[in-house]
Structure formats: C-alpha cells, structure tokens
Design brief:
By secondary structure, this protein is mainly α. It has helices at about 1-15, 35-50, 60-80, 85-105, 110-140, 175-184; strands spanning about 20-25, 30, 140-145, 155. β1 (about 20-25) and β2 form a beta hairpin.
Length: about 180
C-alpha cells in the first residue's frame, strides 16, 4: 500500500497544477491539494509506525528539526525579522521534508518495490518533460507561485526566453525532482 501512496505523491507533486485552495493570512503562501495528499501519507506512515511500535528518528534528523525551530524562535522573538505565521510555515515545511524521507524509506522494503518505484518515476519524469516542452513550444499553462500576485493561482504562459517551470510551483522545485534518480 505505501508504495502506491509514494507514487501518488510523486505524481501529485510533479504533475498537479499548483492552484491554491486556502490562503495563509499575512503571507502569499497557500495550501494546495498536494499538501493534503502529503498529509494523508504522513498520517498513514505514522499509524503504521505506531502499530509496529517503531518510530525511527535519527539524531541528525532530530538536530535538523530542533535547529529549525530554534531558528524560527530567534527570527520571531529575538531579532524580529519574521512573523510567527511565516516562521511556523517554514518550520513545518522542514518537518514535512523529513517525514517524507521516512515515508519513502519505509515504502521500500524489497527490490520489487524499488523497481516499481523506478518505473513509476521514469514515467512521471517523461510526463513532466512532455509538459515542460508543451509549455515552451505549445503555450501550455504555467502555474507559478513565485510572488504574491502569481500565488493567486493564475494560469500564465511562458514569454520569449523564459525558463520552463513545468508543473512545479517555481524554478527551485523542478531541479530537485529531476535529481532524484541520481540518488538511486
């Protein structure tokens, strides 16, 4: 079951347009449908880990999370360089990253699951590439969230000489996704 959930997450993060569902007051951050899919996956993983009475957390991951929350505390209350809403969102994003690592790690129990995931990832990567080419040459829509105006979920098209966002929210999301095969 968890391998299918992992593929669903890869599919949603890579291919579902970044239309906002709910705005977060005081920021131009929005909650999207993929955030709910990820939350369901983390919840499922948490239930599975608790049933097995095994909740793995490595010291380095714990240190990363504690450092993130200390940083938020300092930014909000000491230096006053960030608001509480934005600080907590950044901290929760770090928790989400680490939880997704655990979801992915636990989803791969044998070689068959790994082969299934690789085949799925290759198919999703092909679809991402086709969509990116469609954006560049066929005027397919771009949903960007790189500033407060774009974060409202406007469907745009790429201008002359613009870089491909693919279906990702911004140029910073596509390279990490495409680098996943390098880690395998």
């Amino acid at each position: 079951m968890s391998k299918y959930l992992l593929v669903l997450i890869l599919f949603f993060v890579a291919l579902y347009p970044k239309f906002p569902l709910l705005g977060v007051p005081g920021t131009f951050v929005a909650v999207r449908l993929e955030d709910f899919v990820i939350a369901i996956a983390i919840f499922y993983w948490g239930l599975t880990a608790l049933r097995q009475k095994y909740l793995p957390i490595h010291r380095s991951i714990l240190l990363y999370l504690v450092t993130g929350f200390v940083s938020v505390f300092c930014a909000v209350f000491v230096t006053k360089t960030a608001g509480l809403n934005l600080g907590l969102l950044h901290a929760l994003r770090r928790v989400e990253y680490m939880a997704m690592f655990a979801v992915g790690f636990n989803a791969l129990q044998n070689r068959n699951q790994l082969h299934f995931l690789i085949r799925s990832f290759l198919l999703i990567s092909l679809l991402v590439s086709i969509f990116g080419l469609g954006q560049q040459f066929l005027g397919w829509p771009v949903i960007s969230t790189t500033n407060s105006e774009f974060s409202k979920g406007l469907a745009l098209t790429l201008g002359e000489g613009a870089r491909i966002n693919s279906t990702f929210a911004g140029h910073y999301d596509l390279p990490p996704f495409l680098s996943f095969p390098c880690f395998w």
